[in-house]
Design a protein that fits this description.
By secondary structure, this protein is mainly beta. Helices cover about 0% and strands about 50% of the residues. It has no helices and eleven strands.
Length: about 120
């Protein structure tokens, strides 16, 4: 059974940066397509980014394009989300999720989810 563990969240001022990590346990990450999702208080979960099995294809929500970068480190079996120029509207619990079933990251196709890490952007 694959297990995903997120880390790296915290409190950051507007304009600051954080790097989230999603560590894979049990299986190699290059079997999976992996996405980052977030859910802000009182809002529905939204997709943030998606990365292919070998890392050569990525996509981003319009709201984070140019600020967030997703990447993989096969040696560490970890997917990262580098978040720059964070804004208060980026405040949310961030989740990573993976699938064997899809080349993209539709939430309904994601088979494995981490428990999330909280990102708070506030002055």
């Amino acid at each position: 059974q694959l297990k995903l563990v997120e880390s790296g969240g915290g409190l950051v001022q507007p304009g600051g940066s954080l790097r989230l990590s999603c560590a894979f346990y049990g299986y190699r990450l290059d079997y999976y397509v992996t996405g980052w999702f977030r859910q802000a208080p009182g809002k529905e979960r939204e997709g943030v980014s998606c990365i292919s099995r070998n890392g050569d294809t990525t996509n981003y929500a319009d709201s984070v394009k140019g600020r967030f970068t997703v990447s993989i480190d096969n040696a560490k079996n970890t997917v990262y989300l580098q978040m720059n120029n964070l804004q208060p509207e980026d405040t949310a619990v961030y989740y990573c999720a993976s699938t064997l079933r899809s080349r993209n990251c539709p939430p309904g196709d994601m088979d494995y989810w981490g428990k999330g890490t909280l990102v708070t952007v506030s002055s």
